[in-house]
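Aim 2, interim progress: modelling of the coenzyme A-bound target.
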Amino acid sequence: MTEAIVYEKIGDIAVLAANNPPVNALGQAVRQGLVEGIERAEKEGAKAVLIYGEGRTFFAGADIREFGKAPTEPFLPDVCTRIEASPLIVVSALHGTALGGGLEIALGSHYRIAVPKARMGLPEVLIGVMPGAGGTQRLPRLIGIDKSLDVITSGRQIGAKEALELGILDKVAEGEPREIGLAYAQELIDAAAPRRAISEMPAPEPVDFDALYDAVLKKGRGLLAPAVAVRGIQACCELPFAEGMKRERELFMELMATDQRQGLIHAFFAERAVGKLPELKDVEPRQLAAIGVIGGGTMGAGIATSALLSGLTVTLIEMSPEAAEAAKGRISGNLQGALKRGKISPEKFAELTEKALTLATDYAALKDADLVIEAVFEEMSVKKDVFTKLDAICKPGAVLASNTSYLDVNEIAACTSRPEDVIGLHFFSPAHVMKLLEIVVADKTAADVVATGFALGGKMGKVSVRAGVCDGFIGNRILSKYRTCADYMILDGASPYQIDAALEAFGFAMGPYAVGDLAGLDIGWAVRKRKRAEGMDPRARDFTYADKLCEDGHFGQKTGMGYYDYSAGAKARVPNPEVMPLIEADRAAQGITPREFTDEEIVRRYMAAMVNEAARVVGEGIAKRPLDVDVTLLYGYGFPRYRGGPMKWADMQGLPGLLADIKSWAQDDPYFWEPAPLLEKLVAEGRSFDDLNKD
Ligand code: COA
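Predicted structure of the complex, ligand included:
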């Protein structure tokens, strides 16, 4: 008997308590402990077996850290089968999150009870695999094709109440899992309840699984796992149970061998590692209860909304009572959305808008704030003016934050008497929706101020990434490079439409030109004007078609016309007929003979530009680790999660080949394609970006 499962016999009931913190993942020792526990219960003449988890949860799934390694016995499907085959009545009592293999253990049991707060699901597709321990064979037998298709292909978590309605659970009861489990097992013994094996239940009638497969594949934009899981459900309906199990295992192993699985698991661990910085170990964040927001435009209102929803009180400063009223309207509108989606109650809505939110026009209202974030116009003189006022008014120890997306936070900090309290908190618009928060650490920012930034992100449910100071920090700096690469491909012969289509096929939610139209083409126009005014490097290529489009008043979706014509609606995306002639005029003026680009070359160049700049960002210490870049792109820039992020993608492609491509393109444009020193170093040393994550 291993320690991961603690055995105890209480009367007629053998209790198997999982003890594998933090989440009772089903590693080898746990699996073995379960099998041994069932055998012992049978030998010792128990009438029933109770399985439950000590600590915060029932089994939260297979041990993901074992994925990609040779599987060790006993295999999870066999453990479930062994549990189900027991002549004793097996009860699983669920609390916390019974996910993946955890739910499969419960489905292998004969009865399932849960506490009301328990959540369950089969989230395997979210990490690139599918249920591999009978989930696709037992769940459809228990609840039918439609419901199991939804549960398995979405990977979503289901609350106990819904699970009871779906028929996944037999009972929900208040109490500790051990107590409710023991009571239920005793009740079943007393009632001489039958042993109920799901595998012995009839399978549903088959449906048109080819059509389902195609529909699920299309919905996932290239994500394989949910579609392959459909084949598992098909096997349940078309094959005897034992053969269905074999088929499920084969499909599971196929997915296990994919790059998508590697990418998704990398993303899973990267987003957990991102907030764990050695510099913050043992550093306590400062007090954080009341915050101030300066500016109530889209960004300020979004930040205020997010803060209110996370339980903070907010004082928002605007220039005039009218502007303050408009800001309040924006925040209420955002909160209405949360109300409609059932995230908050009408009482909570009233409390947030009436009690937790204060609007003011005088900075004096910020004197008690623990942290103030400014979201005013993106102009250094305006920011300095705000920070000078904050310095005069805020209490000692208050954190002073700027939401700038590219300005120098050191320069902003220097205009105060307390640069150690100044930090950048770069939210993404709309701030109450987008999950990414870049925490920009300036030269003098104190460690506990950084910790407070992470604490704020945590409260708001954001994924926070530490960034250093440079133009654009991690995300916008890299974005500017790959956007430029796309612009150059247009000059050389590609069209914006081909580029968008190629990148959407790669998995981006939207191609760069569709994104430009959504965000507003005036943003990029302003940046180009600023860069030209600052003096561009003479070796950099330039073009005018994008400016001409703006000069004609086409700012994208908000004006109804950009790279696309939106007169038939935002989704229609009809190419704007004015665009190609503008591009052709640029090419003619620069004497460029346009050439053909394959979709493959478009993706390769775009990604290489992204990775090369990302390597600089890591090499310069702007991002501490490659995984920080990956998480930034995944959460702020629509990068396809199943590719893991640009650095993971680069590792999987092979860094030497990527560097060779960059060097070959550098022959035509040595300025743009200059290889990043870190990329050259890694190739020379035969190492990968992921190796740096482990250093
Ligand atoms: N295998 C191995 N480790 C796991 C794990 C798993 N299935 N699930 C969670 N962990 C680890 C996390 O990496 C983290 O480790 P760390 O503290 O060293 O960073 C720790 O357990 C706690 O997880 P965390 O996500 O930080 O806690 P949480 O309370 O926010 O969420 C879960 C808990 C279980 C909901 C979440 O971790 C989760 O969704 N896990 C994956 C579940 C899954 O996909 N199961 C199916 C696998 S087949």
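The mean pLDDT is 96. Residues 599-619 form the longest helix (21 residues).
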